Each structure stands twice: as C-alpha cells, then as structure tokens.
Amino acid sequence: MKKIFRTSLLMLAAGIFTVSCADYNVTDDFKADPDPSFVEPYKDLAPVKSYINREKYANMSLGAMLKVSDFNKQELAHAAAVTNFDDYYFGTTLMSGAIVNEKGVMNFLDMKDLLDHVEEIDGEVFGSPIFANANQADGWLNMLTAPIEVPVDYVEGKTVDYTTMDTFEGTVEKGTATIEKYDGANALKIGTQCHVNIIEGFEVDSLAKYTITFWAKSDRSANFSIVFSGTAVDGGGANGRYLLDAGKWKKIVVEAQSTPGVTDGYLRIENTRSAPFYVQKVQVGYYPDNHRPQTTQELTDTINYAINAWCDGLMKINAGRITSFDLIDEPIDANAELENGMFDLKHSTDKIFWQDILGSENYAPAVAKVSRAAFEEYGGDPAALRFFISEIGLEDDKKMESLKYWINIWDANGAKIDGINAKLSLTYSEDPEQQAANKASLDNLLTSLASTGKLIRLSNFDITYKDATGANVTVKDITDAQRQNLADYYGYVIKSYMNKIPHDKQAGMCKGNLVDTNDPVGLWAVDSKSKDWVRTATYKAFCDALSGQ
Questions:
Q1: CB-count burial class (<10 Å; 0-12, 13-18, 19+) for 285
Q2: What is the CA radius of gyration of the chain?
Q3: Who's near 185: CB < 8 A, 6+ residues apart?
Q4: Is 456:505 a contact under the CB 8 Å cutoff?
Q5: Cα(200)–Cα(190) distance, rounded to whole angstroms?
Q6: I need a labelling partner for 427 at 20 to 30 A (CA). Which of 32, 70, 289, 300 fits?
Q7: CB 363 within 8 A of CB 303
Q8: b/e sequence 374-386, b meaning 16+ C-beta within 10 Å
C-alpha cells in the first residue's frame, strides 16, 4: 500500500475550495482534520518538489500537465499538482482554438479563474503555445482571410424559346416531353412523371448566383420539383415542390447556385403524377461570383491584425502572471526538405498557417515582437519573460539539426527565443538491447539540446512500458517488478537531464500524466475500490532522483 489522496477530505475553507489534506496543504493558515492515514512503504516521503536542491539547481522546476477543467475543480488532480509540482501546464486548453470562436469572440473565463487561483496560492503556470499550426482558431482565421466581396453586374445568359420549335431535342431522363401547339403557339409539353431538362448546354460556376425564368401553364393543378445543376431547389410546397394552379400562365423564377464541382448548366423539371403542363420561353441570367481573393498585402495586414488581437486579449488576461511561454509549437515538417538538406517549416494549402503569410524567416521574429509588446503593455516584467520553441521527435538527429537551423535564422532576424521545449516520447523495453538503444537516444538528445546554449525544458514526460516482444504492458497487467523497472528509468531520465544540461540552462521537466491512464505512467495509481490516488514506485523514483540519490 501507498500514501493516498482521499476524495472525502475535500472541503471549503475560508471561502476558497481548498484540499483539506495536511501533508498537501498549500496555505499557511489552514489545517486539515483529520489527517489522512499513512501506510507503508512510502509514508515518509515529502512532496516531490521539496527534494530539489534549489541552491545547486536554481533554475530547475517540476511541472505538471492538467486540463483547465480539472484544475479549476480543485479536487485530486489540483491537490497533486499544487502540492508536488512547481508549475502547471494546460496544453491545448489555453490555446486560441479553445478560446476564440469563428467570429473572433475570445472567452478567457476559465483562464482568468485559474490564473486568479494560481496567484492566490503563489503558483506558476507555463504558458501554452501562443502560435501553432494545430489547435488554432481556424474558423476565425478563415473568416478573416475570406475573399472580399466586390460589386458585379448582372449577365444575360442562354435563352430557349419553345414557341419557335417544332421538335424537342433536349435531355429527357424519364417519361415524355414533346413540342405541341397550345394556346395558339408552340410549347414544350411535360408529361406526368417526366424528368426533363428545359434548358441546358451552358457552363456554370458554383460561386455565381443564377436566376432562371420560365412561363408555365396547366389545365389542372400541377406540382413538380426543380433541380439546377445538381442542386435541388426549394419551391415552397410540400417536399420542396413548385405549385401550378390550373388555367393560367404563371411566371416561375428560380434562384439557385450549382452544386460545387458541377460545371454543366441545366434546369431539370421532375414532374409528379398530378398533371402535364406546358413551358414556353426559358431564360438564364446570373450574377458572377462577387468575391475576389485578398491580395498579398491584404492577407499580411489581416494576419497582423489577428496576431495583435490574439496577443492583446491573451496578455490582458495574463497581466504579467505567466512569464514563460511556448511561443511556437511544432513548426518543423519532417516530410519536407530544403535544398540544403534541412527540414522545412510546415506549410498548408488548406488552412491558414502564420508562416505562409509572414514568411518562414520572419515568422518567429514577427510573433515574438507582438507577444512581447503585449506582455509588457499589460504589466509584464520584460526581464522575466521567456519564450520557447516546442517540438516533438527531436530524438531524430536531422529534426534536431533542422530546429537549430531555424532558430539560428530567427535569432539572426531579431526574434526573442530563450529556450527549447522538447516533447518527449519515451519507452522502457524489457529487451536489453532495445533498452540500451533507448538510453543512448535519450543521452544523444540531451547532448544535442545542451549544445544549443538555450534554456532546455522537457515536457510530455511519460514513459510507456514494453515487454521483450515489444507489446505494451498496461496498468492491469504490470507487476511490482515491472513497476520498479519503469520507476528506475524515470529516475535515469531525471538524473541525465540534471547532469547533462548545464544548471543555468535547466528550465525544468513537465510530467504528462500525474495518474495512471491505461498505461502505468503515473506517480499515482487509482485504487480500484476506493478510487483514491495511491503513490507508486515512480513517486519514490522522482524523489530519489531529484535529491541526487
């Protein structure tokens, strides 16, 4: 058994939802009664962060990743994070995609609540990426960069006059359509259940707006459907049909756009069983697409507006409280090479990527400048501000070199880039040869990161467990011995970071999951009966490694 967080020990104190657990208490004037019980073997361990030698490792910090909703509930996840970790990271839940709607309205309510609370308990937040390619406010960016409306003139299109015809040569998909004398002139007779194109043979643009006009008459009340170039048109009657009263000519005006991808123009009548009817002259006209793409300068101005608006809103709510941010998240495209052999930045033809508008070499300098200015405008201390570039897969030497290549360019162009946030993807293997390779890859990564001279943060610090065959070992199957193997590797990673990264360049490590998921990644497991959080061997491994044991 291990030390336990008990759900029953949550209470309200002094108007603040606080965890009433003496060993996990985060205020000086609040005591929990009764204390939770302690059982072997981890009863004597203190909060994890207390084991860091702050004199030797002045810049070292221990971070925890949580959801905003979990933190704001101030329950078990909150208690574990606040008691054991120096800072809190909220991932995508504080990125623009979760805050800005498609109209540009920014909802910072959850962020304000958590920052106010973090300030009350004297905690710290590591800022989510300010700019990225994923989890951005795509709807808003699409709206801002949409084509601009321009005035256009109505264009007269094709005309078909059945009063001048003796035979019908158009397309009949079903039933019978013929030219017959009616009311003293020729007309197209459309039989019951006939599907016929009354006009066709012209090109259409799905962005243009078409008006098709024709005159029709029936000796009995009739109803029918209309399809214009793939688009079913609503006629206002039952099932979207058009209605034709008996005995008089009726001018029918159809306004429609063609289905995207359809280029052949036609208007098809789909008559019902109701009655045959007659059509004379058919005319098509249209307003061309009244949009034009934004010019390069307009797009640049639009994106600069978006950058300024987002940074202004973010930093206004922040009010200088978050001082370390991921400035840009995962910019490198490992599937695209430059001529010099380095990987390119990510680019897109489907979505708005900041770098596609600002230019690859100006991307980081531009967003860093605006972010820094907004931070300072709303009370932030410029001396405390730190910007990181976060990236995944840096165990790959070429990706690591490519990131350094781009950071050097951005540095030279005036960007403020203080550090690298390396997102880990670690595995422990029972295969000795594979595990040796895992360790070598980690050591190589840390050496490469140290060579940049930047501050180095490791995030997504979770380790999955694989048996000798390469199969994942899950929570329900892992043995105590395997737990210890995993814990030992966590300790190895921590010690390697603290030894290989210069002390003045250590920006800390951030745990990805505090408690076990389907994988045994947590410092805590969940008791199957009580649902309490129970310390695992990994908890002790963190304490030992951070203390230098």
A1: middle
A2: 34
A3: 163, 280
A4: yes
A5: 16
A6: 70
A7: no
A8: bbeebebeeeebb
pLDDT mean over 450-470: 97
How do residues 344-392 score in pLDDT, each as one tens digit?
999 999 999 999 999 999 999 999 999 999 999 999 999 999 999 999 9
Pairing of strands 386-392, 324-329: parallel
AA letter at 435: Q
Bridge pairing between strands 277-287 and 148-149: unpaired
Closest CA relative to residue 465, chosen from 478, 449, 450: 478
Identify which of 450, 334, 367 has the alpha carbon closest to the alpha carbon of residue 132: 367
Task: Find the farthest-apart pair of alpha carbons in the chain and give their distance in angstroms, rounded.
Answer: 106
**pLDDT band at residue 40 under the 50/70/90 scheme:** low
Residue whose structure tokens are 């880039």:
417
Rounded distance, CA 101 to CA 85, Å? 32
Q: Which amino acid is at 489?
A: Y
- Residue 154: exposure state from Cβ atoms within 10 A (0-12, 13-18, ≥19): exposed
Query: In sequence order, what DSSP letters do the residues of 132-169 get, joined into one string?
Result: ESSSS-HHHHHHHTSPEE-----EEEEEEEGGG-SS--
Burial track 502-537 (b if 16+ CB lie within 10 A, e otherwise): eeebbbbbbbbbbbbeebbbbbbbbeeeeebbbbbb
What sign does the CA torsion over 219, 221, 227, 228 have? positive
Q: Are 526 and 516 in contact (CB under 8 A)?
A: yes
Residue 373 tokens, joined? 């200015």
Prior bond to 129 cis, omega within 30?
no
Q: Where are the alpha helices (DSSP H) in 413-517?
A: 432-451, 480-500
Q: Give 5-37 pLDDT, tens digit per residue.
A: 443 323 222 222 223 233 333 334 433 233 333
State the pTM of this model: 0.80
Residue type (1 letter), 145: T
Strands 533-535 and 124-127, sheet pairing: unpaired
DSSP conformational letter for 246: B
